[in-house]
Amino acid sequence: MRTTKTVGCALIALLVVGGSHWAWSQSTIAYTGGPAFQIPVGFTPASLDLDREGAADFSFVGRFPICTMDIPCSYCEWPFYVASAGTNELQSTPGGYASILSDGEWIGTLTASNSFWSRAAPAILLAWWWSQRAGTSGSLGPLATLGSGYLGVRFAAADGPHYGWIQVRLPQPSTNGLPSEVTPVVTDWAYETRVGVPIRAGARPVPVPLTSPHIARAGYVRLTAATEIGKAYQVQAKARLDAFPWSNLSFVIPATTTNTMVDLPMAAPAQFFRVVEAD
After folding, report:
1. Which domain covers residue 72, as residue numbers?
2. Taking the CB of residue 250, how many other CB atoms lie within 10 A of it?
3. In this predicted model, what pLDDT tens digit does every residue of 84-132 receive, in sequence order?
């Protein structure tokens, strides 16, 4: 919801309505829902700027297939990589592959027994292989096993280290076992805005629907949110819709009814508001 002051009057310009529920909610998460992209093949990687500060945090690229010299060819392999920039880190496996986490797994200082934080060489995200001679094909790595999941990442911002996730998935397979589009897809990503605080893989803010806001008393706008008794909710604001990320207001609202009201002072010339589930 946006409020704009004009000639001493407050005009309600836009209502932000929440989307569908997500299993893991954290109100302090900065989430970007895409657009999704396929990993490019060649020498120019696709970069990802998690905090939108103007510098790439991670990059993705696919190299060209490498095949044996015999004819018919006995083995070809086509690898795709993910790399961290600077001091940023990625959860990787001892075998050189990127770890793929399931929904809800914690991403923090500690990692699973078969993974570790790495910022050295690029990690293999996925490798396709096939044999023309044997008529067989397949794929290698944790992403090949799971089909989709999350990269656990840790990146350095101006205020310190932040944990985040990047969701990746395989393309759809064709009838011959190899995909019609071979490149893996990066779908969305998020990070915890609090320094050094762990995040669950797949966690994102969960906005709730708002009814039409109105001026309940001079200088205040009233929001009414659809809430669940016993849960807590956080009001977030920003001055422009294209600003990133949303900022939490300094209070949490415990819901005692299914429709929770809050009056907010109209302290700025223009503001956008939304209500999300609190941690």
Report:
1. 29-200
2. 6
3. 999 999 999 999 999 999 999 999 998 888 899 999 789 999 999 999 8
Domain count within the chain: 2
Backbone angles phi, psi at 142, to 5 degrees: -60, -35
Where is 143: in which H helix or E strand?
A: helix 142-146
Express each pLDDT in 124-149 by its tens digit. Answer: 999 999 998 898 988 899 999 999 99
- The CA–CA distances, whole Å, from 272 to 34, 133, 183 equal 21, 61, 38
Closest CA to 3 of 229, 263, 195, 239: 239
Question: Of 200, 217, 239, which residue is a domain's last?
Answer: 200
List all residues 6 or more positions away from 7 whose beta carbon is below 8 Å from its beta carbon.
none
pTM surpassing 0.90? no
Q: Are residues 148 and 95 in the same domain?
A: yes
Whether 192 has a pLDDT exceeding 90, the answer reads yes
